[in-house]
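Reviewers of the previous submission asked for a worked example of the structure-prediction workflow described in the proposal, so we include one complete record here. The input consisted solely of the amino acid sequence. No template or homolog information was supplied to the procedure at any stage.
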Amino acid sequence: MHKSEYRNYNIETILAPLTEGKVNVYTLPDKFVGYLVDRKTKFSYQSIAVYIAGVKSYLEFNDVDISSTKFRKKVTLPSKQMGASAIEEISNKWKWSQMAMKVREVYQEIIR
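From that input alone, the workflow returned the following structure tokens.
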């Protein structure tokens, strides 16, 4: 399992950083999609869409401001015809973002 920059948060503690703008409200669900796609146990498009709808609903219920238009544009769901190429594309996008975070962390350690 990949380590995430969100590993120190839980469903309740993530709310304050989201409302304060310390955590991007669109990046978090987008990375969650990547996590769901990258799992050994594969989820269908419908399952992933339901999970993301639940996340969005939970955040809105807890007064986290979310623009539906921005959410649709920035949170990448796999296609309904979720073939191997769609799954691989999202998985690769997520892996690259994980590698970029690691490079950033190492760079920050070097310059300190």
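The radius of gyration is 15 Å. We consider this example representative of the routine output the project will generate in years two and three.
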